[in-house]
Design goal:
With 250 residues, the chain is of the alpha+beta class. The chain folds into three domains: 58 residues, Arc Repressor Mutant, subunit A (Orthogonal Bundle), CATH 1.10.10; 92 residues, YebC, transcriptional regulation domain (Alpha-Beta Plaits), CATH 3.30.70.980; 69 residues, 2-Layer Sandwich (Alpha-Beta Plaits). It contains nine helices and ten strands. The strands form three sheets. It has a four-stranded antiparallel β-sheet with strand order 3-1-2-9. β1 and β2 form a beta hairpin. α2 runs antiparallel to α3. The longest helix is centred in the N-terminal third of the chain and has 22 residues. It is globular, with a radius of gyration of 18 Å.
């Protein structure tokens, strides 16, 4: 079980409160605007924008919000200009952590992220200190009740997927980034329901944590995810289902 898979499965099972949904919409709007600014407002020619808009639709964001975010990115509407940064470091249990941010105030964000790391007993490192432990992949999480395993595997491999993993009550279809949309379109064409479809950073290997360190890292991940400038958090931890149950994360 990869660290991303474990963290992703924890995240997408969380109850979405109104406050969380509002914060999620804010982050999605930032991502759409930056994608449109960098690659233009047409999804046909801007893969990053396609992924961002798909993520927004999966979160049930109103189409008007999406359209305005695109126009802010292309300059058709006034908006804040955001910069992208990646912070890297080590958390409890020497877990490798990557934090992707979009911010309009680099100094403020860096200070706040450093404080979160320090308070958790973690440490920020230089650029590249842990990114080499991850590779970019497409991931589609499909509940087991959506279709039989053999049919899923056949469909995924036929579409160009790299791997299919079993994760508890779901299947995780892994693709190369350039094949992600083709594989997703194959599932869409067959009306296969999925709970997550995104481009992510998947760890090459994982670190198995005991209960104390697991509790510390999960708390840290939650705090990072709650930060308004943080878009994504990736880590290479592995936590057993027994410990997750004890911590109330299953």
């Amino acid at each position: 079980m990869s660290g991303h898979s474990k963290w992703a499965s924890i995240k997408h099972k969380k109850a979405a409160t109104d406050a969380r949904r509002g914060k999620l919409f804010s982050k999605l709007i930032k991502e759409i605007a930056v994608a449109a600014r960098q690659g233009g407002g047409e999804i046909e020619t801007n893969p990053r924008l396609r992924v961002a808009i798909n993520r927004a639709k999966m979160a049930n964001m109103p189409s008007g919000n999406i359209e305005r975010a695109v126009k802010r990115g292309t300059g058709e509407l006034p908006g804040v200009s955001y910069e992208e940064f990646i912070y890297e470091g080590y958390g409890p249990g020497k877990v490798a952590i990557m934090v992707e941010v979009l911010t309009d105030n680099k100094n403020r964000t860096m200070t706040e992220i450093r404080h979160i790391f320090s308070k958790a007993g973690a440490s920020l490192g230089a650029a590249g200190c842990v990114s080499w432990m991850f590779h970019k992949k497409g991931v589609i999480v499909i509940p087991k009740e959506s279709l039989p395993e053999e049919e899923l595997i056949e469909l995924a491999l036929e579409a160009g997927a790299e791997d299919v993993r079993t994760i508890e009550d779901s299947y995780e279809v892994i693709t190369l980034p350039q094949n992600f949309e083709k594989v997703k379109a194959k599932f869409d064409g067959k009306n296969v329901k999925y709970t997550l479809a995104d481009i992510t950073m998947d760890p090459h290997s994982t670190i198995k944590l005991q209960e104390k360190e697991a509790e510390q890292i999960l708390k840290m991940m939650d705090i990072l995810e709650e930060h308004e400038d943080v878009q994504n958090v990736y880590a290479n931890f592995d936590i057993s289902n027994e410990i997750l149950e004890k911590l109330g994360k299953k």
